[in-house]
Amino acid sequence: MHPIPRRLVLTAFGVGLGALAAGGPHPAAAQPDPGRAVNFIQATGQELTAAINDTRSDLAARRLRVAGILRRAVDVDGVGRFIIGRWWRQASPAEQQDYMKLFEETLIRNLSARFGEYQGVRFLLGRAQSRTEDDVLVNTVIERPNVAPFSLDWRVGEVGGQPRVVDVIAEGTSLRLTQRSEYSAVIQRNNGSVAALLQAMRGQIQQLAAREQGR
């Protein structure tokens, strides 16, 4: 079985991706306010960079801090449902539950495994514009020591009356669509087995945990 490719993730935060999940049972969203979206991204980004750069805390404490930020900023259920797509309906209730737990753990570990790489990270806010009736696009520039700055566009929608990241666009590519394609490919290579995806996700989490510990 082929492993799931590991993705660069500050963008893991943006894995954020899809409160607009196909089949996701969310109420109709109000049109977001661009100013509110900018303030949300600014506050969330400041929280994340503070957690990443907090070298006084141990890895476990920093991971817990990041986990709390991501759970507040990302509609994890909607994101997960969007990414697994049509295969959600083919999964058993137990597989659906396992998938959501593994998806959240993957999101968190993707970032915590890279704390060292992102030491000293900061971001600059750019413009914001209403992208559709349902979301606002907020541009940022990510800066890391000794690495060329790069641009990330954050799609912000409203879920349950609160702003949430619903996608991240890196170099013109939607990260939630990319991840959806990768997950689907794993299942298709294994004759439609959702269990195969779960196994691959467990393997990915083990690799990320080992990387976090420097092994």
Structure, described:
There is one protein chain. This protein is an alpha+beta fold and 215 residues long. The chain has a single domain (11-210), classed as Roll (Nuclear Transport Factor 2, Chain: A), CATH 3.10.450. The protein is built from 7 helices and 5 strands; from the N terminus they run αααααβββββαα. The chain has helices at 11-14, 34-52, 59-73, 76-84, 93-112, 175-189, 194-212, and strands at residues 122-130, 135-144, 147-159, 162-170, 173-174. Strands 1-2-3-4-5 form a 5-stranded antiparallel beta sheet. α2 (34-52) runs antiparallel to α3 (59-73), α3 crosses α5 (93-112) and α4 (76-84) packs across α6 (175-189). The two termini are 23 Å apart. Residues 1-29 have low confidence and may be disordered.
CATH architectural name? Roll
Rg is: 17 Å
CATH class: Alpha Beta
CATH structural fold name: Nuclear Transport Factor 2, Chain: A
Number of helices: 7
What's the rounded overall pLDDT mean?
A: 82
Largest sheet: 5 strands, antiparallel
**DSSP strand tally:** 5
Tell me the strand order in the biggest sheet.
1-2-3-4-5
Can you tell me the residue ranges where pLDDT is under 50 for at least 5 consecutive residues?
Answer: 1-29
Please report the distance between the alpha carbons of the first and last residues. Answer: 23 Å
- In one word, what is the shape? globular
- What sequence of helices (H) and strands (E) makes up the elements? HHHHHEEEEEHH
Helix content: 40-55%
Question: What share of residues are in beta strands?
Answer: 15-25%
Tell me the name of the CATH homologous superfamily.
Answer: Tgt2/MlaC
Overall domain count: 1
Label the structural class.
alpha+beta
